[in-house]
Design a protein that fits this description.
With about 160 residues, the protein is mainly beta. The protein has two domains: about 70 residues, SH3 Domains (SH3 type barrels, Roll); about 60 residues, Roll (SH3 type barrels), CATH 2.30.30. It contains one helix and 14 strands; from the N terminus they run αββββββββββββββ. The chain has a five-stranded antiparallel β-sheet, with no helix packed on it. It comes from Allopontixanthobacter confluentis. This is SH3-like domain-containing protein. Keywords: Signal.
Length: about 160
C-alpha cells in the first residue's frame, strides 16, 4: 500500500508546488489579464476598496511588486493597483499605442508589405521581437509592427 501511495503523493506535490514556484519571479515582468473581469484594489488584500475593474482579457500589464498572492500592476495608461496573482497569466501580450493606425507588415521592416492596420487599443499577443519590430497576433491577424507602437514589448 505504501508503494502505491508514494507516487501519488509525489505527483500531488509537483502539481501544487509548481504554481508557487512559478510565482517567484524577479520584478518587473510582463503579464496579461487572464480573467474576463478583474478587480484592481488600492492595497494587497480583498479588504481594500476596488479602485478599477478591468474587463479586457489578454490586456498586458507590468507587474512591479509582489506581496504573497497579490501583484502590484501598471497598465499602458500608467494606472496602477493590486490584483490577485491567479488572475494574471505569464503570456506575453501587447496593446497598440500612439495616434493613428499602426502598420502590420509581412516582414520586420518599414519596406515590408502592408498586411493590416491596427487602431490604438487593439490587444494581441507578441509572438517574437526582432530589433525594433515585433511579430504581433491580433485575433489571428498576424504581422510585424514597430515595437514603439505597442506597449508590452521590450524589457519591463
Amino acid at each position: 500500500m505504501i508503494n502505491r501511495t508514494l507516487p501519488i503523493l509525489a505527483l500531488l506535490f509537483i502539481v501544487f508546488a509548481s504554481p508557487a514556484s512559478a510565482q517567484q519571479r524577479d520584478v518587473p515582468y510582463w503579464a496579461t489579464i487572464r480573467a474576463s473581469e478583474i478587480n484592481m484594489r488600492v492595497g494587497p488584500s480583498a479588504e481594500f476598496r476596488i479602485d478599477w475593474v478591468y474587463r479586457r482579457q489578454g490586456l498586458p500589464v507590468k507587474v512591479i511588486r509582489v506581496v504573497e498572492g497579490w501583484r502590484l500592476i501598471r497598465d499602458s495608461d500608467g494606472t496602477q493597483g493590486w490584483v490577485v496573482a491567479r488572475l494574471l497569466s505569464p503570456d506575453r501580450g501587447a496593446v497598440v499605442i500612439g495616434t493613428g493606425l499602426a502598420a502590420m507588415r509581412d516582414a520586420p521592416s518599414a519596406s515590408g508589405k502592408l498586411k493590416w492596420k491596427a487602431e490604438p487599443g487593439v490587444v494581441g499577443k507578441i509572438v517574437k521581437c526582432d530589433a525594433n519590430w515585433c511579430e504581433f497576433d491580433a485575433g489571428g491577424r498576424m504581422g510585424w509592427i514597430e515595437a514603439s507602437r505597442i506597449w508590452g514589448s521590450g524589457e519591463p
